[in-house]
Automatic annotation (TrEMBL):
Protein name as it appears in the record: CARD domain-containing protein
Residues annotated as domain CARD: 5-94
Pfam families: APAF1_C (PF17908), CARD (PF00619), NB-ARC (PF00931), WD40 (PF00400), WHD_APAF1 (PF21296)
GO molecular function terms listed in the Swiss-Prot or TrEMBL record: ADP binding
Record has Transferase as a keyword: no
GO biological process: apoptotic process; regulation of apoptotic process
Species: Patiria miniata
Domain of life of the native organism: Eukaryota
Listed GO CC annotations: cytosol
WD-type repeats, residues: 614-655, 656-697, 698-739, 740-781, 830-864, 865-899, 987-1028, 1029-1070, 1071-1112, 1113-1154
InterPro entries referenced in this protein's UniProt entry, alphabetically: APAF1_C, Apaf_helical, CARD, DEATH-like_dom_sf, NB-ARC, P-loop_NTPase, WD40/YVTN_repeat-like_dom_sf, WD40_PAC1
Protein keywords: Apoptosis, Repeat, WD repeat
Amino acid sequence: MTTVLSERARSNLLVHRATIAQDLTVDYVLDPLISDLIISVEDSEVINAEVTRRRKATKLLDIIATKGQQAYNSLHKVLGEKHKHLAILLEDGVTVDGVPLTPGMSPDIMSQEEVQIVMTRGGVPPRPAVFMSRLDKVREIREALYQLQDKIGWVLVHGMGGIGKSVLAAEAVRTSKILTKVFPGGVFWVAISNIDKSKLLTKLQNLCARLDRESRPPPLNLEEAKDRLRVVLIEQHPRCLLILDDIWSSKVARIFDVQCRVLVTTRDKSVIDTITSPVSTIILEHGFTEPQALETLALWTEKPIGELPAEAHQIYEASKGNPLVISLIGGLLRDHPHRWEYYLKKLREKKYSRLRKASSYEYQSVDEAMGVSVDQLPDESRELYFDFVIFDGGVKISAKVLSVLWDEEMEFVEDEMLKLANKSLVRQEWDDKLRCMSYTVHDLQLDFIKQNSESQTEVHKKLVSRYKKLCNGKYHMLEDDAYIHEYLPMHMAKAHLSAELRCLLLSLDWIVAKLDVMGSVAPAYVLSDYVKYSHYLMTREEIDLAKEFQLFISVNSHLLIQSPKPDVTQLALVQPPDSLVYKQAQQRALQSKTGFYLNWCNRPSKMDHILMRSKVHEGTVSCANFSPEADLVVSCGEDENIKIWESSSGRVSTMFDTHNDHINWCEFSPDGCKLLSCSNDKTLQLYNICEEKIIATLFGHLAEVYMCVFSHDGQKAASCSEDMTVKVWDLVNLRLLRTLTGHSGSVKGCQWSCDDKSIVSCSHDTTVKVFDVASGGLQTSYDEHDEAVTCCCTSPKGKKVASASTNLLHVWDMSSGEQLGVCVCRAQSILCCAFSPSNGIVATGCSDFSIWLWDIASFKSLAVYRGHSSWVLSVAFDSCGEQLVSASDDETVMIWKVDGLFSDNNVVFKRDFAAQFSNDDVTIVTSDITNACLVIDNKGERIRVVSKSPARVRSVAISKDGKAACGNVHGQIYILSIIYAKELCVLTGHTCAVRHCVFNKDGSLLASTSEDNDLRLWDLNKPSQHIVLKGHADSVNMCNFFKNDTRLLSSSHDGTLKIWDVKSGEVVMSINAHDNWIFSSDMSPDEKFAVSVSVDKTAKVWDVATGKILHVLNGHDDIIRTCCISPNSRLLATGNDQGFIKIWDLTTGKELATCAGHNSWITDITFSSDSKYILSVGDNVKWWRVDGSSVQIFHIRGSFVRLIHADEDFKRFVTIGNTGILYILSLIKQPQQHAMHL
């Protein structure tokens, strides 16, 4: 049995990898390792296949790392015989019976040069120009770090700003012994500061990219980044140290709690309160002692301490020994060594004149030192320094940005900034990405600048004008300098440049550029621009246009965070045609030289009222609720996280991750200060939102808790559970008040009455009960439901209750239990419901992914909202009833505008359909949710009901002579006249669902397949006569006529292909193709090849003439669901359930390309007529070149597409999504010189 490789052993193999590979001769150690049964013969062949000695050694080390501790011990033993100097490197990782051997000869082999290399690679800042070693504190930090030699943990260095935490942290690790013995995996410095979560994600993405030796896309969210960092540190950098400099928030610290070794500098000790790892704390209560301060001043002025003037002691007293003050004044004295009295006077004057709350930091001596330093700058340097007034604290400003602002060359910028850096007024560091220096101004210094600047507006104007000049007013053409795309709208707004701001906020070009530059965090920033700055626009018309762009980003933000990012122009082409967003997208499409863009020709005039579509969770979202002011949303779900985010931008502000299982419900308290949640972990949790901490965990339920709701006064809560009880909680004293019993099944919902005197609960036992809160007694039991009750809600005024089971919403009186009315929903099941504050509307979320609004006076629907692509699990109104928030199993939360209520006039189509293209139109035959057979033409505008099927239609076909066939699940086939829109006849004979229908060339014959294992051939001139083709032993899924209509090819779940004689109905050939179901089959246009694809993950190519197998195609790793042969009979496309499409050479069986991009089953594939492109559907619609490269994606309003039809020119396309929306798409006509030839 392989023993797990210890952390120290893994670290040694990684750290000493290059040294061992350089000196090791594999031939000397391979035979002993084979004899010890460590290396197999196959392993030795893999090693010897490498072409150089170094590569062989590297491959050996890789194999040893996979074989565990015993292999490592054996390698050490063998090296001790042949390469003793290499064995020493591995010695302290050797174990005996799991116990480490005492290290023997391992020397401290790291030189100072090597130490410096480790420091530089890890981004550890160098020593300051004048460095004062505070040995007592350095030793204290090192002693704490030595405790991490054989265990994970955190070391916290805590102290006030400017006291030298960062310098001491860097110095503590700048030693050979600690790097060799404790952190052989290296040290890695991360400057944090006071950042929000979006910027923290960027830092984590950069850190992961820095540390990860594998080429992986950046993590898309903080949870993924945390997991990535954990894996990278454990697998690639064991026994390393992560140094987090200047952490301000416990939320940030918690992200780095990944079971590794961490050194933290911070001003706030509470940042580690939630850390699960052991923590050692070093407190820096004092800065320099007087001797240290004097020594620092002596080093700056290059004088012996004994020769320093009396003012040196007085400067120490006035500065209170603050290292930042001493360093700043020391830098000034280096340039002007005779100004001791002057600087002391300035320091004192500033101190006494500013004995007020002029700064938010309460570090008055630091503030005075800033004034002294700035006052001594030359006029030009002071003016440049004060230009930093327009930048936010903690933001890195590159030399490229300053070069534009100052209209100077980079060399001038770097020279001027070096002067400021030498006087400790800015911090500078090299930016590898931008290949230039970047600068930051400490928050205290920036505070000083902003208090003393009188020209902020003018500096903002200067920055905007310089960038405008740089790009000739085409702001979307600006190159990425890691600043301007994020902050340009802010500068325009603060400069009051409304016309320039209009150029950004009303420009799709700018949005595309910003999304490209800023990546996955960009949508939140773009939305923030509209929220913050739209009111700076000059006219109401411009503000309304800005709302169009804001809405476009809001409803597509869940797509725009994906990687790779979708084509923004194509997304914009789905907007209303009269919108400015659409018009600009159309112009971009027409101007594109290589683009492939599609217009949704039949887009409904009233699609939905979506204001925001947000994806802040991984997995199902169970619940979402507004805050009292509706500026925030709280949501929770399968990922066990509760997230609070801005309803306008989707930016997450707070997260709680204290539950241990799926979270079912969360909501704000009536005052918005607290949060209540419940989970499958059987607990409720109460949180303080402002302090971002948990107040209490409430235990009492014996099973999953489904819902928890605050009373209207916020003093109590009610919860319901799988344990068949409702519990009432005192949230002031944090105790259980009483348990309400009476249900005989799980209780799925509970609500308070408007006066908080009663609680209403609904259960799978088919009842809804009303309990008296004071006594716990039963007041009313509503028993009119016939099946399990899934949800209930109470009116905000009065005594009405709405409760749902299956597709029925009952409205009844709470006091009497009298039924007032029933709302009948067309969906199969109502899953959630909520009253609006207006008291007259109830919203329901349904299993068909829709949301219905009901008038409970008339019990009729007012509106239907469609946009989710899976079950809607919760709905909730804001306090004004103007917005609705919904959570779904599709992993998104949506915010809807509740006004302009409209009935559901949009027909909901089923996914089974057929289409026939004419010169300027397309005719579509399908069915709707009522099973009516429909003919749709006039570009989707005319819908005619032809017939009414008693059951769902599963197969549709259209003939060239104007007939259509609709086969249903009862085995009936309805023959329709498309031209006259009338039913011609009904074919009966099949005893199970019809799976496929196909006409012959002239439309006189129809072939049908069924789950009854039979095929039937129907003579449509004599509908009562037909031939039954028997021979398959399982459901027959497909059939196709040969060109001359004399033969028929069929495929079945019995794993066979059969060729039939049409005239006699006899089997001409039977091919035992697969041992499992055949899902799809196709025949080449030249009728030489047949292809079958199966559950067995193979595709097989057959000779139609002989029935012999030509190729077995084994490239897929999952079920192959669909296949298509190209019109030229040379290529085959197959699609599997992992979302991959493979292109094959039909003649040779060689795999030519893979198309990767669907996140679902591939359900249909078709080729263009020239065989150069393919079209596939699954979770969306995608166009590809046959070399596997992506051409375009059309994102449907749903999650699944089953079929796709294309015209001969591959310029018009038809499909129907799982939400019942019909899509007629056409390729946008481009100028001839720009047209993409298909």
